[in-house]
Amino acid sequence: MELQGKIAVVAGASGGIGRELSRALAKQGAHVFLVGRREEVLEALKRDIEEKGGKANVYLADLANEESVSGLTKSIEQKFGRVDILFNAQGIGIYKKFPDITFEDWKRQMVVNVDSVFLLSQKLLPLLEKSDKAYVISMGSGMGKVAVPGRSPYCASKFALRGLMLSLAKEYRKTHIRFVILTLGSVLTAFGPLSLEEKIEKQKEGKRYLDPVWLAEHIVTKLKHDTLFPETSIYPKHYLEESRRGKT
Fold it and tell me: What is the mean pLDDT of residues 181-204?
């Protein structure tokens, strides 16, 4: 896919992976629609992209709210008329032992990691259909394939997201819209039970993480060369083995 002039929506653009994906897409000439809730972070990202010659718009949205997502869809339609690429990079992780998980914890995990992807993908579908060739790409996890203790809400949400995306990939396989789940290993960002500083210390001790800048460039390169499969896995060395032993 030639990315010059493409309209790319990045949901969760204020997060670590979302920010780097936005930069990588803009670098290749895509007009990036930055979606999230942290206005200061998104505006700073927009300025950074524009200072480097890229194009970006900011839209504040609650992706778990149907009315908010409908407003986002109308705004994109008015400005661009179509969507070529949708990245679902939004997500949270709730890591608690089973007796300590509240029902509110459970619902929040599912709403952000699964419901928002359903809502955004479905609402933007008419605009994706107007593209000559479109991608819907969601950030999955190795924990959507390998369950680990103490993370049941997060694992359940990623298993559900994986099922949603793989089902849609089959449903739309004869169309020009490609649905992709990126099954990722641990990334060197502040996301997860460990802080960025703690991850850096673990990395010094030999733990392997994916660098978010490298990861974003790698994903965008695959997108550019049309080498993304319905499930594309990107892991650090030994990630799956460590996950199966509950050492992630």
Answer: 83
